[in-house]
Amino acid sequence: MEAVFGLMVVVLLGLSRGIETYCDGRQDGAQCYGALGGTLVLQLMNDAAEINKFHWKINRSTLLGWSSNNSTIFLAEENKLFLTPSNGTLRMNNLNSNDGGEYMLIIFDRNGEISAMQTLHLFIQAPVSSVLLDSECLFEGEMRVSCSSEGGDSPQYSWTLDGRTLTDAELLSGNNETNIITLKQHVSGHLVCSVRNKVSHVSSSKRLCTCGFIFINCTLSDGTHISKCVFEANNTLCIEPTTPITMGK
Q1: For residue 151, is it left (φ>0), alpha (ψ between -120 and 50) or beta?
Q2: Which end of the chain is more exposed for a tag (fewer CB within 10 A), N or C?
Q3: Phi (first) and psi of residue 6, to 5 degrees
Q4: Do 128-233 and 2-125 fall under one CATH topology?
Q5: Which of 144, 57, 39, 149 is nearest to 101 (CA)?
């Protein structure tokens, strides 16, 4: 009992170090995704106590074993795996690229014969860590916007303007699933680029003004708040006059 409690502490401490994902692996051929450095919570079965005996393997190596006769749990890596028999969940902590692959669950009956087998494929992905939006005006007044992400395996992009999907009437080139788009003239608003994969989701936003204009957001000394697009060449709205200091005699 003390060994199991110690294992639980180790696993729970590791959860704060990465992303936690969940997967239902009770169906044969299930596909699961885990974040690099994170934790996978895997629903392996409904209740291990209802099963006489099972082994969970990868590449013919047994990682987890269970016997209901004496409630024995075998763990190949005690600082990485933790089984909760009562609800059939398995936690895999501190995932790395070597954890990816095809796993096999083998269930035995009371006679020691194989009664069921099912496979699960685990994919490990690096999560997206940050997103950067950059824009530039083109010769005809169109605006090219790029969305750059750091980290992240198999990133997928999506765009919204003022909370809705960009339309063909606003896009000169690119689409809502590319990382570089070109907006037509006079398109402005709150632009958001979202980047996601199977284990993470990060977004970045920017207040876009049409070319030749800039977005200002300030509060003047009299309490007046200004937040709008203004013509860049003669913008003085957020620039307050300074009062010259008179030196006493």
Answers
A1: left
A2: C
A3: -60, -40
A4: yes
A5: 57
